[in-house]
Amino acid sequence: MSVLGRIVATTREAVDARRERLPLAELETQLSARGDDRPFAEALASPGLSVIAEFKRRSPSAGEIREGATVAAIVDSYQRGGAAALSVLTEEANFGGSLSDLVAARAASELPILRKDFIIDQYQVVESAVAGADAILLIAAALDGEQLEALYGDAHALDLDVLVEVHDEVELESVLATVDPDLIGINNRNLGDFSVDVERTHQLLADVPAGKTVVSESGLHSREQLDELERVGVDAVLIGETLMRSDDPAAALDQLTGGHDAGRE
């Protein structure tokens, strides 16, 4: 079984356990307490290259990333550094995250927040909204067409933006035919073996229809990479480990973007 397959299997078990403790109908009663809307897609639409800065505790490939990191301190640095939006990785078993990290990020920042997780069930869409997410990630490699369409509809019914992630031509073609999303993430990481190739974004970009907001994800660590992605028409980048490992995430973000990302226009 691939890394992705193992993560999806553990995610399914975790969701089933949470649903047993708190049934969906009871969870939905908490939707009325949601805070103000922070449009995620709109934050990425400003001129220039927008940065989605990610809070991420660990990963299967990198291990522990920043021991003792607090959500409040990191997302405050991201906001000061000019991030246009936040991503909070909430998967627990493999990445050490939790929905409480998302709640903390919401309280510590005014930026819109993407819940980054392996979302495979309507229950996760509802808990994302309850926890304060403004957008969710749907990974094409983890879903069949019927699942993708259903979860995409569930998210929009709750006024959540959706970043649909692809990593090859087949997935992109299928996604465009199934939900035709406004936000398309191109993951430079192969979720089968976790290898990274930034050239993947350049290869797939030509097949993305005009008018879509394109986000390049994974393997980004230099100003030169970001400048080239902006030159070829990428709208936003999602950066996690590079910023999380920095002694000063705000300064690192400013240095990567040259102070002219969407958050500083």
Distance between the termini: 45 Å
Broad structural category: alpha/beta
CATH domain topology: TIM Barrel
| Apparent shape | globular
Helix content: 40-55%
Q: What ranges have pLDDT less than 50 throughout 5 or more consecutive residues?
A: 260-265
- By CATH reckoning, the class would read Alpha Beta
The CATH homologous superfamily is named Aldolase class I
CATH arch. level architecture: Alpha-Beta Barrel
Biggest sheet statistics: 8 strands, parallel, barrel
Total beta strand runs: 10
What is the H-and-E element order? HHHEEEHEHEHEHEHEHEHEHH
Radius of gyration from the CA trace? 17 Å
> What proportion of the residues form beta strands (DSSP E)?
15-25%
Mean pLDDT: 93
Pathway: Amino-acid biosynthesis; L-tryptophan biosynthesis; L-tryptophan from chorismate: step 4/5
Protein name: indole-3-glycerol-phosphate synthase
EC number: 4.1.1.48
GO biological process, one term: L-tryptophan biosynthetic process
